[in-house]
Amino acid sequence: MSLELDQVRWVAHLSRLELSEQELSSLGGQLASIVKYVDQLRAVNTEGVEPMAHALDLVNVLRDDVPVPSLPVAEALANAPARAGDHFAVPAVLD
């Protein structure tokens, strides 16, 4: 599938990319290759194939979530640039 330059320009606009004409023509070929590959994948028969999140059968390899004593407040706030009582003080980001 070949893409028109206007289509490539529209995809760049949607992606918020500012591209030169040379970059548009170069990326147009690459984008057309991606679309061609997706069309090729679409032709594969997936009837009866169960959707999966990962190609390998993985199990959780993380340690058990065990509660442990936390850092004391005074130690946690020892290097804080500003504090408000027992809390970190940060500049307001909303009005």
* Strand percentage: under 5%
N-to-C span: 50 Å
Low-confidence stretches: none
Largest sheet: 2 strands, antiparallel
Q: Judging by the overall fold, what is the CATH architecture of the domain at 5-42?
A: Orthogonal Bundle
Percent in helix: 25-40%
| Shape type | flat
Name the structural class. mainly alpha
Q: Count of helical segments?
A: 3
Write the H/E string, N to C. HHHEE
Average of per-residue pLDDT values: 89
What is the alpha-carbon Rg in Å?
Answer: 26 Å
- CATH topology grouping of the domain at 5-42: Histone, subunit A
What is the highest CATH level, the class of the domain at 5-42? Mainly Alpha
Describe the strand arrangement of the main beta sheet, using strand numbers: 1-2
SS elements, strand count:
2
Secondary structure topology:
Layout: H1 5-14, H2 21-42, H3 73-76, E1 83-84, E2 87-88
Antiparallel strand pairs: 1-2
Helix pairs in contact: 1-2
In short:
With about 100 residues, the chain is mainly alpha-helical. The chain has three helices and two strands; from the N terminus they run H-H-H-E-E.
Report on this model:
This protein has 3 helices and 2 strands. It has helices at 5-14, 21-42, 73-76; strands at 83-84, 87-88. A two-stranded antiparallel ribbon has the order 1-2. A hairpin with a 2-residue loop joins strand 1 and strand 2. It is flat and about 65 Å long. 2% of the residues are buried. The mean pLDDT is 89.
Structural key phrases:
95 residues, Histone, subunit A, two-stranded antiparallel sheet, 3 helices, 2 strands, 4% strand
